[in-house]
Amino acid sequence: MAMAALRREGGRFAPLIYPRPITAFRSSPLPPILENEGPVGVRYISTQVVRNRMKSVKNIQKITKAMKMVAASKLRAIQTKAENSRGLWQPFTALLGDLPSADVKKNVVVTISSDKGLCGGINSTSVKISKGLHKLNSGPEKETKYVILGEKAKAQLIRDSKKDIELIITELQKNPLNYTQVSVLADEILKNVEFDALRIVFNKFHSVVSFVPTVSTVLSPEVVEKEAESGGKLGDLDSYEVEGGETKGEILQNLAEFQFSCVMFNAVLENACSEQGARMSAMDSSSRNAGDMLDRLTLTYNRTRQASITTELIEIISGASALEG
Amino acid sequence: MVIVPATTGQMGVLPGHVATIAELKPGVLSVHEGNETTKYFVSSGFVFIHANSFADIIAVEAVPLDQIDANLVQKGLVEFTQKLSSATTDLEKAEAQIGIDVHSALNSALTG
């Protein structure tokens, strides 16, 4: 009776626990069971630490499950938008092609990333590719600058490429994404940054489990003219009659700017979808891990509890048999 | 057949049209399929007519005509005319002028 009461009060009476070396039959890597010297000289085993650990792991599991649900619902909302926006840049690619191999003097890499974390490795892959593009396009008379969208890429790129960053834009997803917002953004970039080629790095959303890092290239009108003259993919551009405007150059300028804003719109939406999908799978694996951990902790907890009951019984019985005989 | 509001005027596009890139101004886009016609108001954009008789129309905003509210069009027109008269910088004048162009095109789309 007294023993049980003492055990229950264990956490409060005993001075704060210090782990004793682990006993032979325990094989789990978790903290060893605690043996305390109580004030009466009685030894009892406390399950308090394991219980606390179980509580916190269970909370983490609940939180990550909730985050997964939230990400799933946000993904549903934004996925239709992203799929509809694909039709926006396809005509441009049909006309002007996508020429990642265009060799130009002034490259601008637009890296699109998320503001919030806990979304797996998508931001790291985008940054890796941006850095790769920078390296690829370095050489005499060539320069590459960065335009960064999103906190995560900013944190990673500001460490070693601070001098190459032209523009940083964050908090993109505060309001739901729409074309007007992105076109204002595109306008800012076009006004403030000189470029011959814009390379937009983002994660394209293929399915909930697959996000492919992609680079879309938008060329400035002068480069388009040059490529058209040299033949190759853009060779047929000259066969198109250009209506309206004073010169062909003016129309091509408007075209390039419109193309940039359309491609940006699609890229931002796809990246947002990829972010939510990556977060879903990250939170899913996290809650599964928490569940596994909880199972192991439960086993330890039960072993501890049973061991202390056995100890109590042994002491009672040996005390009783000592009295008898 | 498709009739697009290009900057140089209304342009009709039939299969076999020569390959063209044209910029659009605010106006009515009408798609004639057989005996049916669907009309949209387009704020601006581009039309690419390819040599294989495919045409791509990319518009910043396109609205079916029956979804336009006439009262809001009138209000917008009045508002932008006011803005033009009170505009000081070239930028403000240009923006007000664009607003007037779009709203008067909307007006004529609804009436005409």
Number of helical elements of chain A: 8
Helix content of chain A: 55-70%
- Strand element count of chain B: 8
The number of distinct β-strands of chain A equals: 8
Q: Choose one word for the global shape of chain A.
A: elongated
* Class by SSE composition of chain B: alpha+beta
Unreliable stretches covering 5 or more consecutive residues of chain B: none
Average per-residue pLDDT of chain B, rounded, comes to 87
Please describe the biggest sheet of chain B, giving its number of strands, its sense, and whether it closes into a barrel: 5 strands, antiparallel
Q: Largest chain-chain contact?
A: A-B, 21 and 18 residues
Q: Strands of the biggest beta sheet of chain B: in what spatial order? A: 2-1-4-5-8
**Termini separation of chain A:** 23 Å
InterPro entries (chain B): ATP_synth_F1_dsu/esu, ATP_synth_F1_dsu/esu_N, ATPsynth_dsu/esu_N
Keywords (chain B): Ion transport, Membrane, Transport
Protein name (chain B): ATP synthase F1 complex delta/epsilon subunit N-terminal domain-containing protein
Subcellular location (chain B): Membrane
Comma- or semicolon-separated keywords:
heterodimer; A: 325 residues; alpha/beta; five-stranded mixed sheet; two-stranded antiparallel sheet; 8 helices; 8 strands; 16% strand; B: 112 residues; alpha+beta; five-stranded antiparallel sheet; three-stranded antiparallel sheet; 34% helix; ATP synthase F1 complex delta/epsilon subunit N-terminal domain-containing protein (chain B); ATP_synth_F1_dsu/esu (chain B); membrane (chain B)
